[in-house]
Specification:
With 128 residues, the chain is an alpha/beta fold. It has one domain: Response regulator (Rossmann fold, 3-Layer(aba) Sandwich). It is 39% helix and 20% strand. The chain is built from 5 helices and 5 strands. It has a 5-stranded parallel beta sheet, with helices on both faces. The chain is globular. 27% of the residues are buried.
């Protein structure tokens, strides 16, 4: 497995590694990501930007622009994530998941990059 660098607000980290922004992760998402990375030890060096709804909107927007890929768990109850959700989902290279039929109806009008799980997201980006 490559080196993993976790970047959280208010920090920034710049290098040539693949950067992935993870937004609104649940405990299950965290566990599933850890298991997937452990089982797929051929992954390159990765920067994970990790946002959970902190009051750092500028950091979130920077990480969104900087990341090669973004995964959003739309079930997050963070008010900041919910207010910026449609903007974030409409950006290129942003993948999202939701269990809510109403949310899926709205977001599929903006983006066809819905994934069922974070594992599906990781499989998709690392199989390219």
């Amino acid at each position: 497995m490559g080196k993993i660098t976790l970047v959280t607000p208010p920090d920034y980290f710049e290098n040539s590694n693949i950067s992935i922004l993870l937004v609104g992760f649940s405990q299950k998402d965290q566990e599933d990501t850890s298991v997937w990375l452990k089982e797929n030890d051929q992954t390159p060096d990765i920067n994970f930007y990790y946002y959970q709804g902190e009051d750092t909107i500028e950091w979130l927007l920077y990480a969104l622009a900087r990341a090669d890929y973004t995964y959003i768990n739309c079930e997050s109850d963070s008010p900041i994530i919910q207010k910026l959700l449609t903007y974030m989902v409409s950006r290129p290279n942003v993948f999202w998941s939701s269990q809510s039929e109403d949310t899926v109806k709205i977001l599929t009008c903006l983006s066809n990059k819905q994934v069922n799980t974070v594992e599906d997201f990781l499989k998709g980006i690392f199989s390219e």
